[in-house]
Amino acid sequence: MSKTIKKIGVLTSGGDSPGMNAAIRSVVRTCAFHGVECLGIYRGYQGMIEGDFKEMGPRSVNNIVNKGGTILKSARSKEFMTKEGRIKAHQNLVNAGVDALVVIGGDGSFTGAEVFNEEFDFPVMGIPGTIDNDIFGTSHTLGYDTALNTVVDCIDKIRDTASSHNRLFFVEVMGRDAGHIALNAGIGAGAEEILIPEEDLGLDRLLESLQKSKASGKSSSIVVVAEGDKMGKNVFELKDYIEQHLPEYDIRVSVLGHMQRGGSPSCFDRVLASRLGVKAVESLLEGKSNYMVGILQDVVTLTPLEQAIKGHYPIDLELLRVSDIMST
Ligand code: F6P
After folding, report:
1. Nearest ligand 1 atom, CA 174
2. 167 marked among binding-site residues
3. Is 55 within 8 Å of 37 (Cβ atoms)?
4. Is residue 28 a known part of a binding site?
5. What is its subcellular localisation (predicted)?
6. What is the CATH architecture of 145-261?
7. Is 167 in the pocket of ligand 1 (CB under 6 A)?
8. Nearest 10 degrees: CA dihedral of 253, 171, 74, 132?
9. Which residues lie across from 41 on neighbouring strands?
10. Phi and psi torsions of 83, nearest 5°
11. I need a labelling partner for 155 at 20 to 30 A (CA). Which of 175, 180, 303, 312 fits?
């Protein structure tokens, strides 16, 4: 292993996600394992600009593998988007003796890392942390699996009350512009219909599907709506539209919101975080930079940050067909 890197900084940035703490723990302990120092940076890039740092050793990450959120806190820093902000941040890292950086976050955070690398020739490595699963170069981002389980758990509960009252529920889930959460949680929770941005079902087909569902003897229904769905109506407008056209339905809306980002990470996310943290640190020590570590077909891989930012992990449209068949 290269001896040029003696100290690695780690930060979490953007929307938090379950598994970020397990990734911090992995980075800190892998550094300790290889005799490299580790510096925790609070509040993402904003903390880098303000010099909000804390030396971290293997004991500073005790008992966090099971905790949601991020002990390093997270932020979306406007100042880091300016050259002045990045110069301050770089100077602080140099003053603190940091030689390389691990950034745990989504594509916005990776864009910051890439620019920082380019401007200061500073070694960076990304770990994908977002519930949205919208990053190219990894089949799973940290927190996605936990969020799916949270959503399924919520919809199971909604189903109890929906079926007791013979109601139709529109359940809005997160995902920004991607439908991964909606599609997979929708199938897992047995939704009658799933609306995702990648495939515009159209209002007519939605009406048709709900009519068919009623005619087939179903007395209650769940429609999962991705927040980024492009149907042209938000979830409350959808409710009004369906109420107008199918007055026989008693409809409620449930927006799951930020609860999807919280909670103890699943075993899958903890293992993934541990694997990605090891790879991120060891890749930096091998002299690699400007990559994102991810997982593809259960193999930990490196993808150039630029590709990870520009691409999107594609949605499997076959899942929509599976969903259709399941809602027969
Ligand atoms: O990217 C994660 C995410 O939770 C998205 O699913 C959602 O659109 C967004 O962040 C919400 O961001 P904020 O925390 O700023 O409300």
Report:
1. 6
2. yes
3. yes
4. yes
5. Cytoplasm
6. 3-Layer(aba) Sandwich (3.40)
7. no
8. -150
9. 11, 53
10. -60, -40
11. 312
